[in-house]
Amino acid sequence: DQQVKQNSPSLSVQEGRISILNCDYTNSMFDYFLWYKKYPAEGPTFLISISSIKDKNEDGRFTVFLNKSAKHLSLHIVPSQPGDSAVYFCAASGYYGGSQGNLIFGKGTKLSVKP
Amino acid sequence: EPEVTQTPSHQVTQMGQEVILRCVPISNHLYFYWYRQILGQKVEFLVSFYNNEISEKSEIFDDQFSVERPDGSNFTLKIRSTKLEDSAMYFCASSEGTFNNSPLHFGNGTRLTVT
């Protein structure tokens, strides 16, 4: 059951360039989406979120875009820095069936930013 | 910055033994969660806890699992009789409010190895 899919297991980008991480979802009841970053031996760290009533949210170098009709979201990192190298998880949730706190995670995309 | 702390960082136990994983959520947070990640798989929701009771649990969270907030600071996950398939990274998380306006903050996890 892959309600949240990150189809690219890895991505390599040159420092200073844009990193684009993609995420697709299947459940139209999802109404809140988040991106987390994870370094080895650490827990996921919250990066940025977006509600389904918006199509874009920006925070510094990070921008999340949501295309509800395509059930697709993406995270843009501009400019990419070597410290951004980590695994990025897309997560989604919605108030279906009384859900609360039940984030559905993708499998993650490992981003490598090369100097 | 306040953080969620988890102990121990690594727990090795024999099949059939009871384990207790401990977490200290961020002090002003009201919602508490346990997630787990089996090696190579997705981060999966186990349980959410609010106002001293479970608010939601997944299919994974069967009768072998229990959670408790024994005092004002700790939040524990107990597995009564561990199985080999319980081997995973267990993440505790907390949030200030419901997660659509208050993202989850994760601890660094406890790696549970069942032999």
List the keywords.
heterodimer; A: 115 residues; mainly beta; six-stranded mixed sheet; five-stranded antiparallel sheet; B: 115 residues; seven-stranded mixed sheet; four-stranded antiparallel sheet; 11 strands; globular
Can you walk me through this structure?
- The complex is a heterodimer of chains A (115) and B (115).
- Helix content of chain A is 0%, strand content 52%.
- Chain A contains no helices and 11 strands.
- In chain A, the strands form 2 sheets. In chain A, strands 2, 4, 5, 9, 10 and 11 form a 6-stranded mixed β-sheet that branches. A 5-stranded antiparallel β-sheet of chain A has the order 1-3-8-7-6, with no helix packed on it.
- In chain A, strand 4 (32-38) and strand 5 (45-51) form a beta hairpin.
- Chain B has 115 residues and is mostly beta strands.
- In chain B, 0% of the residues lie in helices and 50% in strands.
- Chain B is built from no helices and 11 strands.
- Chain B has strands at residues 5-7, 10-13, 19-24, 31-37, 43-50, 53-57, 65-68, 75-79, 88-95, 105-106, 110-114.
- In chain B, the strands form 2 sheets. In chain B, strands 2, 4, 5, 6, 9, 10 and 11 form a 7-stranded mixed β-sheet that branches.
- The chains are: A mainly beta (115), B mainly beta (115).
- At the A-B interface, strand 4, strand 5, strand 9 and strand 10 of A face strand 4, strand 5, strand 9 and strand 10 of B.
